[in-house]
């Protein structure tokens, strides 16, 4: 029984670390290269205000989420709440992409690729929150 709990804990922490690395990478990329981050979506950043928005939403938010996920990996008392919150945010992002299907067809990359990433990550975090 103890071995099973340890295995679940290891899987839980692994899922959290993978999600944290994803958010950290997104955050760093968003801070360093905001125009390149949004270019695949057909978005152009023509001024400092646009770059600031991408740095805030992708950069700062991504790093903040990575940090709280890191904290959840080491503190079981906050783990479920953090995981549910991040999972809900990812599910909301995926739902927003799904809603865009009513706006017209989009290419698999980037829209549907990130839809799958967000939906799978949300499901994994929801499941992990229950462990």
UniProtKB/TrEMBL annotation:
Membrane-crossing residue ranges in chain numbering: 12-35, 56-74, 80-100, 112-129
Pfam families xrefs: DUF4345
Source species, domain of life: Bacteria
UniProt keywords, alphabetically: Membrane, Transmembrane, Transmembrane helix
Keyword Transmembrane: yes
Protein name: DUF4345 domain-containing protein
Species per Swiss-Prot/TrEMBL record: Mycolicibacterium arenosum
Lineage, opening ranks: Bacteria, Bacillati, Actinomycetota, Actinomycetes, Mycobacteriales
